[in-house]
Specification:
homodimer; alpha/beta; TIM Barrel; eight-stranded parallel beta barrel; 11 helices; 8 strands; 15% strand
Chain lengths: 288, 288
């Protein structure tokens, strides 16, 4: 899916919601059972119910890999079930030397059929290039994540004399030394254009979005952490929306586990609809 | 496998070689064919031939994931084939928020049955803890990798006033500001002991090993990049060995693709034997 197509879909649906299929066997509605077949049935029901209210699905590979090759098969069938009207993200956070990253790109773009895959930046340019070089596909680089551990390394201050000097004037920070995640955004933005590269910016750090937008004003941001992790959609929209929307906001647990009863899919649809209703307002205000 | 058992195995075999099963269908000996069954047959033959000369096998998940769930099945059967005398590493470079990393730990420690898994540090402590908390298992954190891209972020200089101050006196660096990878080593070493935590340090950066040893003198280091990537075993041993050995040196392509003919397994054994012969000398010199 191209950037133009993605923006058109957001305008059509009035939503920039991404539904995260972090499906946990132990949280399935009891009437479905708790085996891998139930996991797939659950995913299909959630997809059917939420399709009108979201533009994207994000599947976290960890929840499927925990069950080995059979889990991978369920991940494959879940991806296969999502219609091409929706942007399909493999949340895999991969990254390795070039020769090896190329295999990961093949796994998620060709075998699984995702539109986008999340990647970790620690290993640098040649670990990310093989993803970026796939025509018609998207690479989503971890920038600032939603977890407490983001403080350990992502927020380390760089020496402004030794590589931490920013070419981007930063009105918010008011100084020249960068944090590591800012350097990651600025550096990776040189490797891929806004047509094939996005960044992960956690919603629990919404106050940082103004700063993020000063570094990457045009790139789409994938924003996890709304809902169960405590991020505020209103704040994310206020600081993160740009003229092309520029956001995909992910909600996982808040949507898919809205109810553990027989009406779980309807409950998920209600939560997704509520997100869309709120998103429509924000999009209108920004005249996207 | 405990640290004591691993050290005992190194002493018994006179080897700290890890054979990397980065198996590429397109590089299989032609008489085996080039399907997934051939991949497994190749792995088994390489394992049979190299068992006496190495103490560990490292399986890079990317080479298997490229083939989806069927590839995962081959990865599983390869792990299953490695005897418990050998230290089994899943080179997966995973890492996610705690809730999700826990699933990756389950995938590789329980389902796959690895002794150790490699993890990426960018997301910080709670992304690594779920691995460290698995009893009797090992977590191998990326420190300084063997690829060119390691220069992009791992070598960024930190502001010595803002978190980049090192408590470890560093005679080699001769100054107090850290590079990011040094901070990763120092910080992660506080999360896990030398009984359950290792670091990846690329052999192509062997000159840095003296510096690495000043920060983590006792931890085992997994050192990839010897052979095809150009790293020198002699340099790695000189700067990296400690009184307990403290090294697992990985060779992948140099061993497993030593020959593309019918005698590929014997050729792999010869290369592994040559590594062991060299390693025996270095171990003797250090009196391990």
């Amino acid at each position: 899916m191209t950037r133009t197509e993605l923006i058109a879909r957001i305008k059509e649906t009035g939503s920039f919601l991404c539904v995260g299929l972090d499906t946990d066997l132990e949280k399935l509605p009891s009437h479905l059972g708790n085996d891998l077949a139930a996991m797939l049935a659950f995913n299909r029901a959630i997809i059917d119910a939420t399709l009108p209210y979201c533009v994207s699905y994000k599947i976290n590979s960890a929840f499927y890999e925990a069950y080995g090759s059979e889990g991978w098969q369920i991940m494959q069938e879940t991806f296969d079930y999502i219609p091409d009207t929706h942007f399909k993200i493999a949340d895999a956070k991969r990254g390795d030397i070039g020769n090896t990253s190329h295999r990961y790109a093949k796994a998620f773009f060709e075998t699984i059929g995702a539109d986008a895959v999340t990647v970790a930046p620690y290993m640098g340019e040649d670990s990310i290039r093989p993803f970026l070089e796939y025509g018609g596909k998207w690479t989503i680089v971890l920038g600032l994540t939603s977890n407490a551990g983001s403080a350990n390394f992502q927020r380390l201050k760089l020496d402004s004399n030794k590589g931490g000097f920013s070419l981007v004037p930063n009105i918010v920070r008011g100084e020249r030394g960068q944090q590591l995640y800012e350097n990651v955004l600025e550096t990776a933005a040189q490797w891929g254009s806004e047509k094939s590269l996005m960044f992960v910016i956690g919603a629990t750090q919404a106050s940082e979005l103004e700063n993020v937008r000063s570094i990457v004003p045009n790139h789409f941001l994938l924003v996890p952490g709304v809902g169960a992790q405590g991020g505020s959609l209103e704040e994310v929209a206020r600081y993160g929306l740009n003229a092309d929307c520029g956001l995909l906001v992910n909600a996982s647990r808040a949507v898919i586990y809205a109810s553990a009863g027989k009406e779980f899919a309807e409950a998920a649809a209600s939560v997704a609809l509520a997100y869309r209703t709120e998103m429509q307002e924000y999009l209108k205000a920004k005249m996207v």
